[in-house]
Recover the amino acids of this structure.
């Protein structure tokens, strides 16, 4: 029985975290619902229907009332701005494409929220992620793939530590999305039919470049100027709006008439150049990554066969990883992979388990 175990459930106002809270209460845990206040003063997300706005808090409160559990809103505005928004903007200004959800998971949900939850006597935090916490045959804790490949969210969780995993519950990892909705309907949860949030929570209109420009202006940061579209050999093809508008693999929105489809293959922040090429030029056979975190393995001392993912929607490719520095891994794919993008994560799997990962250089 889990009667004496207290768990703080991060409730986003969506069906997944709501069902997570229900399942944990049903299992006998002492459940407390918490929504993280991360929206900034005057920010649009305060009014939107995403995972982090005022509407989300209202929905989460209604679910908590239906489940008869205590509910609170905890303020993490400063932590979110420092570790997610400022990081997001800084990466784009440097010509990289960050993943803010990974940063939020590591430094806000599983750092700030976990520490505050433990300080009020909780044993665990829980979320509505489609993933499972498992112990490997070597005794390491790792996230493993959920029961439904279509919703698996392990890619965005590779950066968690052993300590954090030891205080984490992910109760919906054993369910498909359809089953989660069926549970919500059966229990009359008020968000049973609420659609999933798709956009980045702090950019509700999905206009990254506008957000970066506005944030940079208010923070006194210098935006990259207009520059040249070039070939890989340096031939000038035209003028672009600034490197914050582009990412590797991009085809649409280039506003450049070439008579054929061309793609962004590289961003050169030192010269403010955006390199364009053909479809085949977007494929690469290797990557280097740093800012490493080991999860299902304690270290990498010899080359190892893995399946590596280079973005959330990537199915993964067979690869060999080897250590080439104290904080650097070389990942070589068996078959070329499309749009390997600096700033995104490379995550390594052994079967269903996450071995670890790093930030693509």
């Amino acid at each position: 029985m889990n009667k004496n175990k207290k768990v703080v459930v991060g409730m986003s106002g969506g069906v997944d975290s709501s069902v997570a809270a229900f399942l944990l209460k049903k299992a006998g845990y002492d459940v407390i619902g918490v929504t993280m206040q991360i929206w900034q003063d005057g920010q649009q997300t305060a009014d939107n229907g995403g995972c982090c706005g005022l509407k989300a808090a209202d929905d989460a409160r209604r679910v908590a009332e239906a489940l008869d559990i205590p509910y609170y809103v905890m303020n993490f505005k400063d932590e979110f701005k420092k570790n997610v928004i400022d990081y997001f903007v800084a990466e784009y200004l440097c010509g990289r494409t960050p993943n803010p959800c990974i940063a939020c998971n590591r430094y806000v949900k599983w750092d700030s929220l976990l520490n505050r939850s433990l300080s009020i006597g909780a044993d665990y935090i829980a979320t509505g992620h489609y993933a499972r916490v498992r112990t490997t045959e070597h005794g390491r804790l790792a996230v493993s793939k959920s029961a439904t490949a279509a919703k698996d969210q392990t890619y965005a969780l590779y950066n968690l530590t052993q300590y954090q995993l030891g205080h984490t519950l992910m109760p919906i990892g054993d369910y498909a999305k359809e089953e989660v909705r069926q549970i919500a309907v059966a229990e009359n949860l008020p968000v049973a039919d609420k659609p999933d949030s798709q956009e980045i929570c702090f950019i509700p209109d999905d206009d990254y470049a506008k957000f970066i420009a506005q944030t940079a202006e208010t923070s006194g940061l210098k935006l990259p100027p207009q520059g040249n579209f070039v070939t890989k050999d340096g031939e000038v093809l035209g003028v672009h709006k600034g490197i914050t508008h582009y990412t590797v693999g991009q085809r649409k929105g280039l506003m450049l008439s070439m008579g054929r489809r061309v793609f962004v293959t590289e961003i050169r922040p030192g010269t403010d150049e955006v390199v364009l090429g053909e479809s085949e030029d977007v494929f690469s056979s290797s990557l280097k990554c740093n800012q490493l975190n080991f999860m299902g393995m304690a270290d990498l001392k010899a080359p190892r066969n893995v399946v590596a993912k280079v973005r959330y929607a990537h199915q993964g490719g067979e690869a060999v990883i080897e250590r080439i520095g104290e904080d650097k891994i070389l990942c070589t794919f068996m078959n070329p992979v499309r749009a390997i993008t600096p700033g995104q994560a490379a995550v390594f799997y052994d079967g269903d388990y996450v071995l670890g990962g790093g930030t693509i250089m």
Observations:
- The CA atoms of residues 347 and 357 lie 4 Å apart.
- Residues 100-119 form the longest helix (20 residues).
- Helices lie at 15-26, 54-67, 77-93, 100-119, 162-166, 177-186, 208-219.
